[in-house]
């Protein structure tokens, strides 16, 4: 069905993910006539798979400091005007039970389907029309608005919101459509790369560690000024786990990546105590009390001297402590968009309004969510950006 002059839309939202639906319901409940176009067969696919099916829908501690962008100030306005507490209130109004897992991360007790249902119910309250399995063939600008040619006809509106997401997880339907559209309208798209993604190893590191797949180790991962304390998980291809996913957004091939294997511990003092109290024990045995046994053994086979503690002098203990406190992990790359949770880079924020998300180049054109050069940490921050940017845009339409 085509939009007609008698029944036009006030806004068309491209993308039925978290940001797009939040924008649509916000505008719809303000009396705007909104159409959401989603090319997949259902909306909210990434919401459904997130958090192991329980959707880590926000983080109570979200601030601008938890986001990466070429302009770290850009996200402040939207985040301040729609906070985690605002979305929590919405969740509670829909009587969705939730819990805090760790570090401010909130998850549904039951299922991520509840968050999608919340968004759809709110969209319905705002009279939002949603078209799924709807492929866009062409987008034109002129004659007082935007005209979107689809397999179901031409839809028109004075405002167009691009909420098409990034390149991460193409199996869920991710594509570069939003970036192509931005370029077509004269916008700069900053280089994109996979973020919150497992790292791959090669060469000796891979040979030495591949058979440890499934072993988890508490670490503090460090790259430049960034540091994250959480678990690292060995995989068949390299390393993953929360600490690695977090640091991956700050790491580029060739960067120095170090892991503190005894986070929060004075390794040298601890080793001296062990030497005094357990002089006959071998280093691998002592380390196995703080690290997984197989990993402790592997460290002593390739990185550390495996001798009884009493045979290790002060200089050797100092060297061992240095390795344990800053173990060099030589990553060769990442697993890429196939498994990445987010896409770094995107539409340049210098060309967008931070209060409305509208293009400074084309009036009536808006960009929200992951397609924009704002990327959150692991732990609900990217959903909070989706809610906040979607709400800011929805209030401006």
UniProtKB/TrEMBL annotation:
The keyword Flavoprotein applies. It holds the Pfam family HI0933_like. Its cofactor is FAD. InterPro entries: BaiN-like, BaiN-like_dom_sf, FAD/NAD-bd_sf, RsdA/BaiN/AoA(So)-like_dom, RsdA/BaiN/AoA(So)_Rossmann. Keywords: FAD, Flavoprotein. Gene3D superfamilies: FAD/NAD(P)-binding domain (3.50.50.60), HI0933 insert domain-like (1.10.8.260), Translation factors (2.40.30.10). Transmembrane segments: none annotated. Residues 193-342 form the RsdA/BaiN/AoA(So)-like insert domain. Residues 10-395 form the RsdA/BaiN/AoA(So)-like Rossmann fold-like domain. NCBIfam families: aminoacetone oxidase family FAD-binding enzyme (TIGR00275). This is Flavoprotein.
């Amino acid at each position: 069905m085509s939009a007609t002059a008698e029944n036009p839309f006030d806004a068309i939202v491209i993308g039925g993910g978290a940001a797009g639906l939040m924008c649509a319901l916000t505008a719809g409940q303000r009396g705007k006539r909104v159409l959401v176009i989603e090319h997949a067969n259902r909306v909210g696919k990434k919401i459904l798979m997130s958090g192991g099916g329980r959707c880590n829908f926000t983080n109570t501690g979200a601030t601008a400091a938890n986001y990466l962008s070429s302009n770290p100030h850009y996200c402040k306005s939207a985040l301040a005007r729609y906070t985690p507490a605002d979305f929590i209130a919405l969740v509670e109004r829909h009587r969705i039970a939730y819990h805090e897992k760790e570090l401010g991360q909130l998850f549904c007790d039951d299922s991520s389907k509840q968050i999608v249902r919340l968004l759809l119910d709110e969209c319905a309250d705002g009279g939002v029309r949603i078209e799924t399995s709807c492929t866009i063939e062409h987008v034109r600008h002129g004659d007082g608005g935007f005209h979107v040619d689809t397999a179901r006809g031409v839809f028109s509106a004075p405002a167009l919101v691009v909420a098409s997401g990034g390149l991460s997880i193409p199996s869920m339907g991710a594509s570069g459509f939003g970036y192509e559209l931005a370029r077509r309208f004269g916008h700069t798209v900053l280089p994109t790369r996979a973020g919150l993604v497992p790292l791959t190893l090669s060469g000796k590191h891979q040979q030495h560690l591949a058979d440890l797949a499934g072993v988890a180790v508490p670490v503090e991962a460090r790259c430049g000024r960034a540091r994250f304390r959480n678990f690292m998980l060995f995989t068949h291809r390299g390393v993953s786990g929360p600490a690695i996913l977090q640091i991956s957004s700050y790491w580029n091939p060739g960067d120095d990546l170090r892991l503190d294997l005894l986070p929060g511990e004075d390794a040298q003092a601890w080793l001296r105590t062990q030497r005094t109290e357990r002089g006959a024990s071998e280093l691998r045995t002592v380390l196995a009390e703080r690290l997984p046994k197989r990993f402790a053994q592997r460290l002593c086979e390739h990185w550390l001297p495996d001798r009884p503690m009493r045979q290790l002098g002060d200089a050797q203990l100092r060297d061992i402590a240095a390795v344990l406190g800053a173990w060099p992990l030589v990553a060769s790359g990442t697993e890429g968009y196939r498994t990445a949770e987010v896409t770094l880079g995107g539409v340049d924020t210098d060309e967008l309004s931070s209060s409305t998300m509208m293009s400074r180049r084309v009036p009536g054109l808006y960009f929200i969510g992951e397609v924009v050069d704002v990327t959150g940490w692991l732990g609900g921050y990217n959903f909070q950006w989706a809610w906040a940017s979607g709400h800011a845009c929805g209030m401006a339409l």
